[in-house]
Amino acid sequence: MSKGRIFSGMQPSGKFHLGNYLGALENWVKLQNEYECFFSIVDWHALTSAYEDTSKLSENIHNMALDWLSAGLDPEKNVIFIQSHVKEHAELHLLLSMITPLSWLERVPTYKDKILQLGSQGKDINTYGFLGYPELMTADIILYKADTVPVGEDQIPHLELSREILRRFNNIYKPVFPEPKAYLGKASVLPGIDGRKMSKSYGNEIPFAASPDELRARVRMMVTDPQRIKKSDLGNPDVCTVYAFHKIFTTKETGEIATNCRNANIGCVDCKKCLAEKMVESLADIHARRSDLEANPTRVKEILVYGAERARKVAAATMEEVREVMNLSYGRI
């Protein structure tokens, strides 16, 4: 049987942190062996809410490609490319905007919330680009006739809208696109080093590109059980940020770590040292791949050019079908 096809993308909006990796990218690396995957750095999507300042866009794109490749995405197994390098995304987005009712876009759960939220930060996103975000997302997915889309639970309403848009297209013209289903992968959730949600805005993140020394330094800063002042105090690992990381990076020994904490057989300093070394060991292959890529930046560009060439072939074939059923092929050479 042939493999299913996946499309997924990420906005190049800044540096990755470890929570981003465990929340999505780790699943991608697993999926590349089970599906035919198209992974896109969706730079046009980044403009829907950050169009005023694009000065760091190229740098962010390069860093995202580094993150993906160092995480283990294989450019031979996957089609890895930049969205704006495949112009068919824009053409299909335009055509979908002709048939999508305005009311469908205005009812997107996060639309008004984000306008208020970002508006309070001084951002004006009351634009067609932001309103039409779901159409561009739909174009991204169906351009490659993906049958599966990895999403978080909060993104399911957006995928359902994409399904409604493609159904409308198929009903008005002719069935061209399959309906993609959601893939809800298991994602590990990490707190920030201060115990809150890991976020660059809080300054509590662990960068995905952190060197072993930087990892150790960030682990030393982690908050622990606030009631445990001295090493002889009995600890509660369930309220400890360090233990939350142990459950992911030292899975085989977490029971022993928890027992030692509760019985005060290990101090917080030693517990952090143990975690740091486990993290360095777990991420060693990622660090090695990143070092190799950073030493050869032209290799990253070559991979993205290669990916765009492969993506364009599939996208061009799809758009030929779309133009044909919409009677837009007359006189084309």
Automatic annotation (TrEMBL):
Q: Where in the cell is it found?
A: Mitochondrion
EC number per UniProt: 6.1.1.2
Name one matching Pfam family: tRNA-synt_1b
Q: Name one GO molecular function term.
A: tryptophan-tRNA ligase activity
Q: Has the keyword S-adenosyl-L-methionine been applied to this entry?
A: no
Assigned keywords, A-Z = Aminoacyl-tRNA synthetase, ATP-binding, Ligase, Nucleotide-binding, Protein biosynthesis
Biological process (GO) annotations held by this record are: tryptophanyl-tRNA aminoacylation
Catalysed conversion reaction: tRNA(Trp) + L-tryptophan + ATP = L-tryptophyl-tRNA(Trp) + AMP + diphosphate + H(+)
Question: Looking at the UniProt record for this protein, which Gene Ontology cellular component terms does it annotate, in alphabetical order?
Answer: cytosol; mitochondrion
Which family is annotated?
Belongs to the class-I aminoacyl-tRNA synthetase family.
Q: Which PANTHER family match?
A: TRYPTOPHAN--TRNA LIGASE, MITOCHONDRIAL
Q: What is this protein called?
A: tryptophan--tRNA ligase
This chain's source organism reads bioreactor metagenome
What gene is it encoded by? trpS_2
